[in-house]
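Per reviewer request, we include the raw input and output of the structure prediction for the construct analysed in the revised manuscript.
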Amino acid sequence: MNRLNAIDLLKKYTGLLPVSYWVIAFILAFLRTGSLYFYNGEKSIATSAPYVYILVSLTCFLFYAFIFAVLIFSLHAIFTRFTDKLFDHTVTSNGQSNWLAYVILFFGWLPNLIIRYPGAICFDTWRVLHIYAQRRILDSQNGVLYSLIMGKCLQFFEQMDHINWGLWFVVVVQYLLAVFVFGYSIQLFQRMKIRREIVGLIVIFYLLCPCIIGYFGVATKDEPYSVLMFFLTILLMEFSIDPSEFCNSKLRLFFLYFSVSGVCLLRKNGIYVVGLSSLFFVPTVVRERGAKQFLIPFIVIVVSCLSIFPVKGFISCRYRVGFNSVRESLSLPFQQTARYVKYHRKDVTNEERRVIDDVLGYKTLAKRYNPKTSDPVKGGYREHNEKLPAYFKVWIKQFFRHPFCYLAATWEQNYYLFVPEAEWDNITLFLDCDTIYKEGETFFLPKRWKKFHKRVFYKPPVLKSWKEWAISKYYQLHKQIPIGMMSNVSVNTYSLFLLFSLMFIERKRWQYVFPLMLLTVLCVVLGPAIQGHPRYMFPVIYSMPSLIVYTMFSFRREPTEVCQEVTINEVEDDRSNEEIH
């Protein structure tokens, strides 16, 4: 056997890396370096000499580019050379093992549900409950369907003098949905015949991930939305693996309809994510000339998206839902304008000042600007939709004057996506259903809500110490490696981009699964905030183990190829033994 030195080995296994891999490495390095600029603080950086900062930034950029290039090469080597060993084609799934996954998840998560009784409520949910209690017109800002379900459950059990059960019922339904979806993903892994050791590690991750167990018992629309988005991802994985079998299963098509409808009804951005993702089906449908196995799932997704509009219309008419404000979808341009006014006030003309004041209120706009969240800025929107065309003309003019200002407003709000070492602060993970009132000054809650709070829920004192202990453990667990890193927002963002890059470059089937997650990240970038609100990234965090398995499955060779290689190796071994004898 010829011995190879280190240089020969590097040339053999890297081939100096394809240009496409280096492009991906440079993009990720640019995102990482730029995010550190905002993470470390612009003021501290400005104190150093410009040439020193440029030299340090260039050094960091090249260093991270090398790190990402090595990481991409390592993942490619693992997926191409060692993935076959992670699948066991001699193992067949059975009903007992499938049901066992559901049982383990149900009882493993159950303590986290019990100690939160009757449930934790975030700011948005409290706002909805207060509107219901005052018999005011519902708005669609916090999800009409979830608000309607929550209010009706509370009204029903309040008539029985057990309003606690109303909140508990909603929380338990969310819990059962999560058990079913996560258990269904385990079923998929078993059908993919991945080794039991890997499945066991994923189950352990499900049982320990703080972003999963920490939200059991929290009444918020983001929890069922994330679970259903994860369910939709799993179903599209099934479709990608075997389109014919998926198309012939009425149950799977119903699940597809249910998940798409639920995602679109629970959050307003769901219709955009799913609708745009469905467009990636079109090239395949055209190329396959409308083949049944590709056309039917596409039709189900489109029909599911369209069917939510009559449902929303009925709910709006029946339960007096208020108008749908556009301020949520305009969070990013509003935030950019606020930063421009704060740092470039002298460049704002009188006419521009008048136009901005008609839309956002110019006098307090600079003070309301918070680089981490756009909530204070968009909260000042005057609801003058007819004046938006004039505003956007001003917005475009100011962009060409100071384009970096707009880039900085976007990046500083989202650097959390690319800085794993940033502190994890989740302001929605409340101890119980009244903690939000203890933080009333922080969230600018009206004082009149306190009267509503006093007559609503009863919290068993015996559970208080357990709740505090559990929440403290969630925070500690999130900072521990490897479980903490697996639930870290930035780590999941980088993992998503790396997996997608490998699938795209190697021309694997990425177009059915990955657009959902990539568009989810895009919605986070365009949305109000991610710092302190990691729940917006929960669909990606929940789906990451499945995405890794799906990528490995895509890189694995067919069983016949593996058997042929084994046969060839056995023949070569026999020949060598004969030569020795």
